[in-house]
Design a protein that fits this description.
The complex is a heterodimer of chains A (114) and B (115). Chain A has 114 residues and is mainly beta. Chain A contains no helices and eleven strands. Chain A starts with a strand and ends with a strand. In chain B, strands 2, 4, 5, 6, 9, 10 and 11 form a seven-stranded mixed β-sheet that branches. In chain B, strands 1-3-8-7 form a four-stranded antiparallel β-sheet, with no helix packed on it. In chain B, 0% of the residues lie in helices and 48% in strands. Classes of the chains: A mainly beta (114), B mainly beta (115).
Chain lengths: 114, 115
């Protein structure tokens, strides 16, 4: 169906390791993607975004990769820390769609073991 | 304030009652969005304001839900004749001018519980 989804609902990593969170989307018209981090009892927090005319974007300890051929998005977190434990959502806005209509996936829960 | 502010943080009410949820967007942001998040799910779009007008209300589930933004800043989401299925976290977000390449910044939401 036309939705953003995630491959793994949960991910457990050791502190200091790198984390990779994956996201698949089905609509090739998707134009803009955002990764959000959501801690318990909080709203989604913006991490990083990427436009469809890019395939990689880096931030502080985070990298987003976009593979339009297979409609796949990933978030890489370097040197994962306990404070990174949260649920991570990818969201998309489709070209030509409502500027308000962010479409979220179900989320991946990242647990960091000390 | 520096971020999106939502009040109340929690609201418990009985089935059939009327509720109002308030959102203060980031100062200067013309675009404001409401989402609803059920437990274990991602947020689902409800309505989007550009200034004072609702640019897209396609996500409102039925006519019991209504939202206003009379002065282009604060917005209120109103739910009439609440039902138990309305229980969720209601999130508000804002962005500078609603362009599709701008991230939306979220508040911490109002947790609504209908008994």
């Amino acid at each position: 169906g036309e939705s953003v989804g995630l491959h793994l609902p949960t991910l457990s990593v050791q502190e200091g390791d790198n984390s990779i969170i994956n996201c698949a989307y089905s609509n090739s018209a998707s134009d803009y993607f955002i990764w959000y981090k959501q801690e318990s009892g909080k709203g989604p927090q913006f991490i990083i975004d990427i436009r469809s005319n890019m395939d990689k974007r880096q931030g502080q300890r985070v990298t987003v990769l976009l593979n339009k051929t297979v409609k796949h998005l990933s978030l890489q977190i370097a040197a994962t820390q306990p404070g990174d434990s949260a649920v991570y959502f990818c969201a998309e806005i489709r070209y030509g769609g409502s500027q308000g209509n962010l479409i979220f996936g179900k989320g991946t829960k990242l647990s960091v073991k000390p | 304030g520096a971020g999106v502010s939502q009040t109340p943080s929690n609201k418990v009410t009985e089935k059939g009652k009327y509720v109002e949820l308030r959102c203060d967007p980031i100062s200067g942001h013309t675009a404001l969005y409401w989402y609803r998040q059920s437990l274990g799910q991602g947020p689902e779009f409800l309505i989007y304001f550009q200034g004072t007008g609702a640019a897209d209300d396609s996500g409102l589930p039925n006519d019991r839900f209504f939202a206003v933004r009379p002065e282009g800043s604060v917005s209120t989401l109103k739910i009439q004749r609440t039902e138990r299925g309305d229980s969720a976290v209601y999130l508000c977000a804002s962005s500078p001018n609603g362009q599709s390449n701008q991230p939306q910044h979220f508040g911490d939401g109002t947790r609504l519980s209908i008994l």
